[in-house]
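Saturday, quiet lab. Running sequence design on the structure tokens for the scaffold JK sent over.
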């Protein structure tokens, strides 16, 4: 008997799956068969009565697993072919069996399908390459199909079911080399739940329950029901990083965050950072919108360089980050993750800055444009500036960037407006007609883009904390980024309106409005006088204490009628002059008094 390599093929083709095996001939003695390690009794035939042409191959456990893990191999007689290579089998005379490979592979004459259900052997909770999310690795007695994963697998911790893993809630993956291992990628929500319950590598009360037929092997046999304790991998670490402190430097425009453990700087989401002026209802607050650079001085620290936009937003607010006591930060969950993949949770309370460096850098003008037609000079600054501190008289136009330019003109006055009230970095100066005319009359000054430069004296403005504006020296004067020329004629025609002087048509309107208002007032006075005189002719009434009203004498009453008064009429008045008649009213207890000349 010669050791041979037998090949089991799923079709009559050259694609094969090797299976290591041991062979023997039927004519060998029982002792030889035992020596080869063959279980001849498993065939149901006595070893001494085997025909000489029969060979029994007892497959190893590894080979069985590999065959059963293939969804297309040996699932029925039609998918079971045998290939035998040259020199694999010899007869007793030493003649080699002709090879049967490829299209010559032999179809099985008899086939007994796998009817043994897979059994769950072990369960391990781990991570993929030491990174979240969590992965539950289930090992079965044979290959199972990840695509046939059904509901009926659940995790429990502390005696309570944490979550049932439905087919749509997990990502099932089978290792191609060993499909008897099923990897279930758990959803993030389950990871959060296990983290809340305190899962660690030392946990011992986690179990997995697999219902019958929860998953299938390659031939469709459902798994047997089982309950196993879950082994927790030492690679699992579910503690989220926590913000411990932070430092804000408004001179360098940096924000340094310090966490409870090592974090991944590249994972930082700057938009999850909020700054506000108070620990309660804030007077000023802002959200970071971007970051220009992120570095890690230490594994537990992230240094964030604020973008110009974020730095300007902070420095433009009136109450925010003026001191350590007006600097509070909150960090939204999911802003950063540790080396395993745990995301930070919400900061429990607003945190005051542990280190605060005030802004000590003064602003500076970085660009400008000039429009002499509209009499406008617009400029941008490097940081927010308070509009009320801008001194127009410290701005000088010059014909070149030189300490001694050929022509220059220093502005005298003008109205200032902030074009961006949020960042306070863009401003407009409306020039006076006098300054505009002087600029136009100055030879070689502001006649083109090449002859339009701006220098600014130190202290021309201040930021919110009083840092004075830095100078733009004449030798380093800024060139205009845009220029529009003007004319003296246009300046003269528009000066009255632009300076606030009223044009003639507006003056006429004001005079007419004043005259009409005066006439209306006279008419009102006359009406009041006439009404007062009319009221003097009417009887005047006065009131005694207790609410009794006394009326002045009235004209004589007509003679008394012979017939009696109706029940609702008051009694007849006496004829005595100035008599006082008091009667009780019908609708109230108020006493009415009437004075009359009978």
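Result came back. Writing it out in full:
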């Amino acid at each position: 008997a010669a050791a041979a390599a037998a090949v089991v093929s799923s079709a009559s083709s050259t694609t094969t799956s090797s299976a290591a095996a041991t062979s023997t001939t039927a004519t060998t003695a029982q002792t030889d068969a035992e020596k080869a390690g063959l279980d001849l009794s498993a065939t149901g035939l006595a070893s001494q009565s085997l025909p000489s042409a029969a060979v029994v191959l007892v497959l190893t456990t590894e080979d069985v697993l590999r065959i059963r893990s293939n969804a297309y191999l040996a699932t029925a007689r039609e998918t079971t072919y045998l290939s035998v290579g040259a020199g694999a089998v010899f007869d007793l005379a030493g003649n080699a069996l002709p090879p049967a490979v490829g299209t010559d592979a032999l179809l099985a004459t008899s086939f007994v399908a796998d009817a043994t259900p897979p059994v769950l052997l072990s369960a391990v909770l781990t991570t993929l390459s030491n990174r979240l999310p969590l992965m539950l690795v289930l090992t079965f007695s044979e290959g199972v199909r990840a695509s046939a994963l059904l509901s009926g697998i659940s995790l429990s911790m502390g005696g309570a079911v944490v979550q049932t893993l439905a087919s749509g809630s997990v990502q099932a993956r089978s290792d191609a080399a060993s499909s008897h291992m099923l990897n279930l990628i758990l959803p993030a929500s389950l990871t959060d739940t296990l983290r809340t319950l305190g899962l660690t590598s030392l946990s011992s009360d986690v179990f997995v329950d697999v219902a019958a037929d929860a998953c299938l092997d390659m031939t469709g046999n459902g798994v047997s029901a089982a309950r196993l304790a879950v082994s927790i991998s030492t690679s699992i670490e579910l503690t989220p990083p926590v913000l411990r402190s932070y430092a804000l430097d408004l001179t360098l425009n940096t924000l340094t965050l310090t966490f409870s453990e090592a974090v991944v700087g590249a994972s930082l989401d700057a938009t999850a950072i909020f700054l506000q002026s108070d620990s309660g209802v804030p007077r000023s607050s802002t959200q970071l919108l971007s970051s220009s650079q992120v570095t890690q001085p230490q594994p537990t620290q992230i240094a964030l360089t604020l973008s110009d936009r974020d730095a300007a937003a902070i420095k433009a607010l009136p109450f925010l980050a003026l001191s350590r006591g007006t600097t509070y930060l909150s960090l939204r969950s999911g802003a950063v993750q540790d080396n395993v993949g745990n995301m930070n949770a919400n900061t429990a309370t607003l945190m005051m800055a542990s280190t605060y460096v005030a802004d000590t850098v003064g602003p500076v003008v970085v660009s400008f444009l000039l429009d002499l037609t509209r009499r406008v000079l617009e400029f941008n600054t490097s940081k927010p500036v308070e509009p009320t501190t801008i001194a127009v008289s410290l701005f000088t136009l010059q014909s070149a960037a030189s300490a001694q330019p050929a022509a220059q003109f220093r502005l005298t006055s003008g109205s200032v407006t902030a074009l961006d009230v949020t960042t306070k970095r863009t401003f407009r100066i409306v020039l006076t007609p006098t300054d505009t005319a002087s600029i136009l009359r100055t030879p070689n000054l502001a006649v083109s883009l090449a002859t339009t430069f701006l220098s600014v004296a130190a202290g021309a403005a201040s930021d919110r904390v009083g840092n004075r504006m830095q100078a733009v020296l004449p030798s380093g004067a800024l060139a205009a980024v845009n220029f529009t020329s003007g004319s003296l004629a246009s300046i003269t025609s528009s000066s009255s309106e632009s300076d606030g002087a009223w044009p003639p048509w507006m003056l006429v309107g004001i005079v007419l409005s004043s005259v009409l208002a005066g006439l209306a007032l006279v008419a009102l006075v006359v009406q009041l006088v006439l009404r007062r005189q009319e009221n003097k002719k009417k009887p005047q009434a006065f009131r005694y204490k207790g609410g009794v009203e006394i009326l002045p004498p009235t004209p004589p009453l007509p003679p008394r009628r012979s017939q009696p008064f109706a029940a609702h009429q008051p009694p007849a008045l006496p004829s005595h002059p100035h008599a006082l008649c008091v009667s009780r009213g019908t609708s109230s207890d108020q006493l009415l008094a009437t004075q009359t000349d009978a």
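Notes for JK: Residues 1 and 93 are 11 Å apart (CA to CA). The mean pLDDT is 79. Ask whether to fix the surface positions before the next round.
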